[in-house]
Write a structure and sequence with these properties.
This protein is of the alpha/beta class. Helix content is 45%, strand content 19%. The chain binds S-adenosylmethionine (SAM).
């Protein structure tokens, strides 16, 4: 977009906050502009003013813009090695330390959970590990996202064949019912509680043992990232874990708050 159109970008940001509660001022501008341009092209608008006029005429376009801006791409066991480190290192350590303290409750937060593949993958891991020790631990996984539509989809726990195509065959057979779609079994569904939550404007969850916030912070400004790392630190129990996406990193002062468990897989532990 040309510089002369810049004020329209601010106007658009303000109306998106007003119309759909999405505060784009905290997101990386370049990234957001690229996504908005997708909607400009789709609606045949050549400039922001033209696009704003379109939004005024057809306010349902705000929904399509919201969908384009909140990138909901996800996958079960996304980055397999990260999940292997969680399975082989994080969970055993966590269970051991809980046992030593005589504690049973384990609280996990998947922040920016999209359609649920991430929290359900974690639920499956915990279920596999604890299946032979029923009653030893109580696992609560809280999964949140700003997008109400994906939260409703996640609650249904129904997935097309393509969405589970990379899931290990044994896991598919054990944890999914297969009909026209693949639906997670009740024992996994009931481990996860979904809720709409905006990471920017709402208070974070607390008393957590693991926070998964993957492939979302990349869209946020560096300032906001640092703010959120501090909030995550506060929300974690002593020794709690923070899992970021493969292309995200702590950096700056935030790095002091956590010690790396796997730098490659972006898994950290609260100091
Ligand atoms: C690319 S997906 C990542 C899904 C999952 N964590 C993964 O790694 O597979 C990013 C998700 O973050 C959500 N999101 C964007 N802004 C958010 C915000 N301010 N608060 C909470 N969730 C947000 C989007 O709706 C989207 O579902």
């Amino acid at each position: 977009m040309e510089l002369t159109e810049e004020p329209w970008f601010s106007v658009l940001i303000k109306s998106m906050l007003k119309e759909r509660g999405l505060d784009l001022s905290q997101y990386r501008e370049k990234c957001m502009k690229r996504r908005i341009d997708v909607r400009l092209r789709a609606t045949g608008a050549h400039t922001y003013p033209e696009y704003m006029a379109f939004l005024k005429k057809d306010p349902s376009e705000y929904d399509r813009l919201f969908d384009t801006l909140t990138i909901n791409v996800t996958d079960f066991f996304r980055d397999k090695i990260a999940y292997r480190v969680i399975e082989k290192e994080v969970i055993p350590e966590l269970l051991l330390s809980k046992k030593k303290k005589g504690m049973k409750i384990i609280r996990i937060w998947s922040a920016g959970c999209a359609s649920g593949a991430e929290p359900y993958s974690l639920a499956i891991l915990f279920h596999q590990i604890l299946e032979k020790r029923p009653g030893d631990f109580l696992i609560s996984i809280y999964a949140t996202d700003i997008d109400k539509k994906v939260i409703e989809k996640a609650k249904m726990a129904e997935y097309e064949a393509g969405a589970v195509s990379k899931v290990d065959g044994k896991i598919l057979n054990r944890y999914f019912n297969r009909d026209l779609k693949y639906t997670l079994k009740e024992e996994i569904k009931q481990m996860v509680k979904f809720k709409r939550h905006d990471l920017i404007s709402e208070k974070p969850l607390s008393h957590l043992d693991i926070i998964m916030c993957r492939n979302l912070l990349i869209y946020f400004s560096r300032n906001l990232q640092v703010k959120l790392f501090n909030r995550f630190y506060e929300g974690l129990n002593p020794g709690g874990y923070l899992v970021l996406g493969k292309t995200e990193s702590l950096g700056g002062d935030a790095a002091e708050l956590f010690k790396p468990i796997s730098i490659r897989e972006r898994i950290y532990q609260k100091r």
